[in-house]
Amino acid sequence: MDSQQNDTGSYSPLMSTAERSAVYIGVAIVFAGLAPTTWLLEPTIGYLISAGMVLPICYLGVISIASRGRVGVSRWATPVLGLFGAYWIGLVLQFVLTGSVSIVPYIVLTPIVVVTLFFLVAPVVRTAPRSFLRGLVSAVGALTVLGIVLLVLEHTTSASFPWTGNNVFGLPGYRIASIYANPNALGFVTAVASLSALWGVLETRRPIWGVAFVVVFIGLVLTDATMALAAFLAATVTLFVLRSPALGVGFAVLSTIAAVGFFLTETGLSYLTLLIERGGSERLEFWQAALSHAAETPLVGAGFDHELQTHNSFVAIVLNLGYLVGGVYILAILGSVGTALRKARTGSPWDEFVFSMLVLLVFQMLTESFTLGGLSTESWLLATFVGVSLLCSADSDVPLPDSVRSRRPNSTGPKQ
């Protein structure tokens, strides 16, 4: 997509080293997160593959930075980085106090992920954003098409694949999961890809981005991942409001009307009942049980090897590490969201996209359990966009469209 236009807005027959690296990093992050969550591999093998992909991603980041230079850290990011440092110290202290070996992988992985994604990958994403999103959307688009192919095989042959062919919004026979072990994981990546492709459409007006958006959004709908769809819609409203409040409000109203209209149908009402039972009441019971258990060991938590379900990243971190260390982690995540918001209100369209993506991720965290420092797709992308949010706006070379230049006081680039 957009293969002849580089991220500075000029056209050239070949992409630069940095832009190629950004494309490869976008693809690599998708497949690194896929490895532990696919039915093609044993989870242990998948985690080893995901961890091993840190090295090539580091290499791509290094050669890209060598080609285009580093991007500075925003002055607003210093306290957030301090909170992440305090969180890691808390992990070490928890291990010393409890001896829980379940904490060791996070002690090892968290600094590796932070160094790799904050200081090597994030600068690449910042300086070549369209190239990064091109790689990410292309990878997810391929997985979506594969999921549709598997659905066709499910209906036309005797082949059977996990989750494929289940209900979608109460209608039987349409669900896809591609090669993920759970369709919610595909739902998440298609939500991220849908928002990315939508931003590509808004910024370039190129048809290929529109085609990509249609493919991955169809994939999102066919996964029946309700929270991922809701997270995408919330992020889209946020993106539209930042660009034009009237557009954002209009989209929110139309989306609400469409949702209400669907839930008033017989199929929609049945689906809403299922959502309330499983997505509402059941999850509330999980959260209540987890927080009650966390209250028994408020300072040290239960570690990462308990069998309690949480389906909420904020509840999970408090349960795993206690209220103090878990609270520091939550403050660090929210601090990065606040930093992104400050830049989105005064910066470039890319800053608006980054904040919208963090909105999507936070919504997803409300019903899924993943942690910065993990190796799932959600964890990889959370760390990537948290890292991007902490970088300076002024060094980004994302071109401003004429419509944006006309309404911004500084047309030469985003303001810090």
Q: Helical element count? A: 15
Mean pLDDT level: 86
What Rg is obtained from the alpha carbons, in whole angstroms? 21 Å
Low-confidence stretches: 8-14, 394-416
Total number of β-strand segments? Answer: 0
Binned strand content: under 5%
- Morphology call: globular
- Strand pairing plus helix content: what structural class? mainly alpha
Helix content: 55-70%
Largest sheet: none
As for the number of domains, it is 1
Span of the ends, CA to CA: 30 Å
Query: How would you classify the quaternary structure?
Result: single chain
> What order do the SSEs take from the amino end to the carboxyl end, as H and E?
HHHHHHHHHHHHHHH
What's the arrangement of secondary structure elements?
Elements: H1 17-34, H2 43-52, H3 54-68, H4 78-98, H5 104-127, H6 129-156, H7 183-204, H8 207-222, H9 226-243, H10 245-263, H11 266-296, H12 313-346, H13 349-365, H14 377-389, H15 402-405
What does this protein structure show overall?
By secondary structure, the chain is mainly α. The chain has helices spanning 17-34, 43-52, 54-68, 78-98, 104-127, 129-156, 183-204, 207-222, 226-243, 245-263, 266-296, 313-346, 349-365, 377-389, 402-405. Helix 1 runs antiparallel to helix 2, helix 5 (104-127) crosses helix 6 (129-156) and helix 7 (183-204) packs antiparallel against helix 13 (349-365). 48% of the residues are buried. Mean pLDDT is 86; it is low at 8-14 and 394-416.
Give a quick rundown of the structure.
The protein is mainly α and 416 residues long.
